[in-house]
Amino acid sequence: EQLIQTKSIHDFKRVSHILDEMKEICGDPIDSSSMERVSEFVEMKSNELKSKLDLLVPTNIINGSFKAYITFDCSNDTMNVINNLAKVCENTKYKIIFIALDNNRKTDKVQEQVIVSSQYDGEYPSIVKQIEREISQNFQDLSIIRIKIKVLTTNESVLLSDMEKDLFWSKTTNYFELRYTIPVRRSRKRDDLPYIQRRFQRLVRNNHNLHVSHDAFQKAYGNDLLYVITIRFFNGGAGLALVQHSSIIGMLEREKFSPLKVVQEFVVHDTNIKLDNCIE
Predict the structure, then answer these.
(1) What digits encode the pLDDT tens for the residues 64-96?
(2) Residues 44-63: b if buried by 16+ CB within 10 A, e if exposed
(3) pTM for the complete prediction?
(4) Which of 20, 174, 205, 249 has the most CB atoms around it within 10 Å of its CB?
């Protein structure tokens, strides 16, 4: 009851019991295989507690505006997919996005993604089924490889503490996402996406959850091209994401890459997190 009311762990007897079980699993001396078993045990207990809490009282309700991003398979014929989507999305709320992103650091391979976005108002988690049902009806003839739903961090419901994020949300499919639109001067050397990717990776620490993309439809922004740096934080709450954001902004401004636009969001639903190779 105390755990449910406070959304934090103060049941020391249960915690002590879990620690005792971890100690037994570890054995003496501790080796790497023991640590792996402990990690699996902690993950299992975490999921068990989350399931019990959600049955007793909803712990992650969010009311407000959501944005859904639907990614389509365009591996065979990109332009055909875009043309089909243009017909489906004509005079609707859907917006087509065509991006190129560098998600393979070893080969500098650039990936193209065709995405449709739309806005919704409602309550999470029930809105997920509503969005998925609508998407299934409207895009039944196209192959969908990802559905991603996000909410702005200005929504008070996602001002999560580190403990709330770890306790009530998935560590692999719920995360904070920061996007920075950066103008980069065009040149023969610097309008290459892998080059830009490597440059920002050197500048931004903890960059294993970073990728750089640009709108494949876009024309030049004056003498510049607009790139979007996307950085994801899987561990920690809103406070940690805000600290990281402040650090990144400071770094970008020192390097003369002042963002034209910054978007801070929390991802509540992601059906294919590995699509951008952001989990390694």
Answers:
(1) 999 999 999 998 889 999 999 999 999 999 999
(2) eeeeebbeebeeeeeebebe
(3) 0.77
(4) 174
